Please model this.
Amino acid sequence: MLDETLIAIADPTRRAILSRLAEGEARVTDVARPFAISLNSVSKHIRMLERAKLVRRRIEGREHFLALTPAPLDEAADWIAEQKTLWAWRLGELEKALKDG
Amino acid sequence: MLDETLIAIADPTRRAILSRLAEGEARVTDVARPFAISLNSVSKHIRMLERAKLVRRRIEGREHFLALTPAPLDEAADWIAEQKTLWAWRLGELEKALKDG
DNA sequence: CTGATATTCACCCTTAGAGGTGAATATGTT
DNA sequence: AACATATTCACCTCTAAGGGTGAATATCAG
Model:
């Protein structure tokens, strides 16, 4: 899952879409409006965000309402936090080694 | 920069390389050993990590020693944290609206 | 029924990523 | 000099991503 989450947020268009959805639910057309690219391209980005479970779709007639489901971001945040912890720990060990030596 | 950082950590092989380097400096060959893929492929992954400034290389004779430089991870962590904050804020607003309504 | 709106489907093209192999380069060892 | 080690370079293949267009589908409004 982490892979798809990170791939999903690695694209600036998709990050912009997520930021837009952080303001609230929106239709595909609404989400697409600010972008210079075609509606179809935005639709594809949304599909990738759905695949990564970062976005949920509620269909009401011909309109598709999109909403954020940010849970997968936690896994990404956790990985980064763990890396930083390990790194900090190693720096601590290095310091100890330097002090002892 | 954020783009390259996220793309860099979106690949599981590269995340494994970073985890290895979190234990300490290592040569290209050392980093490559645990992987089933060719040394050359690992070399390419390392180049991407360097491009993202997540890894620094110190050349000593014929050996290239690699070390983690995790600073760019902060930017990624910040983006995720901001998204979660915005989302939490919006949930708060929703609750308020529900209570008032 | 007709026409407009919302979205996707089915294609196309181009680029980048991830993998491979074999040769080249540079350094160390004997 | 000859050989081994460490790494990259130059190429090839395959797949997926990101963009596009035009048609299809589904719904809503008249």
